[in-house]
Amino acid sequence: MALETTEIKRRLSGVDVLTRKKGLLISPELCIGCRGCQTACKEWNKLPGDRTSNRGTYENPPDLTPNLYNKIRFLEVTGGDTVKWLFVSQRCMHCTDAGCMKVCPAPGALYRTAEGAVAFDRNKCIGCRFCVAGCPFNIPRYDQEGRIAKCHLCSDRIPYGLQPACAKTCPTGAIRYGDREELMGIAKEAGYKTVYGTTDLGGLGVLYAFRERPSYYGLPDSPSFSPTIALWKNILKPLALIGLGGAVAAAAAHYVTIGPKEVDEGGEE
Length: 269
Ligand code: SF4
Ligand code: SF4
Ligand code: SF4
Hints:
Blueprint lengths: L4 H8 L4 H4 L1 E5 L9 H9 L26 E9 L2 E9 L8 H5 L6 E3 L5 E3 L9 H5 L6 E2 L5 E2 L15 H5 L5 E5 H10 L4 E3 L9 E5 L17 H14 L4 H12 L12
Parallel strand pairs: 1-10
Antiparallel strand pairs: 1-8, 2-3, 4-5, 6-7, 9-10
Helix pairs in contact: 8-9
The structure holds iron/sulfur cluster (3 copies).
């Protein structure tokens, strides 16, 4: 059932992402930590298992990997005499104002789908890892060949009328897929104090229904990316793209995103 990349792009061209954005609504309160969504994502994307060790927790693996696009984080929150266990899905947020897309110098490596998600074409990724510096949520990972790997909002299911595998599998409704506007309405109607992602970074494609502050659930209260990203996008990236001063642009980008190289007294980096 896999679509050719060119066919996916043909179907997804000419999109008004702001008015047609679809997304996911994640409600940690409804999550039972079964990790069916984690497994369904791996199965659909044919991602192998990662070797892990027992760290004294049910949470596994400890972090996102190139083989894990959606991870359920197990958080223990203490208050008074009680300990609360929270289960929170961590994955690409499909930002409207996406830092990863702003910094990516490889045309077509990251692209916007018809639903407003941020998908990737690993064959066009050059492995520069600039998108890591551009992402406020620490999402992009790199596979063994140094190419980007992350959630793509099931860009190879949705064109066939299928829900994302994670949402389809979730037994409790903790992950729902649909029109972003409708999902926000559902969360508000259910009385949630905060719908995280409503306006952050131009509007996230992954919304969270929260009763407490986002940091309570391990997410930044006000996600943002560095102002140097704008410098890269507006000045250095166009230079690199037209092949003028590409090396200078790359060196400058390294400086603004990672920092200066340090040289010790012996003259080594
Ligand atoms: S969460 Fe990170 S990787 Fe995903 S769209 Fe936003 S900036 Fe890009
Ligand atoms: S939307 Fe698809 S790719 Fe993204 S986490 Fe869910 S199953 Fe995985
Ligand atoms: S499938 Fe649903 S209930 Fe199970 S871990 Fe994922 S979000 Fe939580």
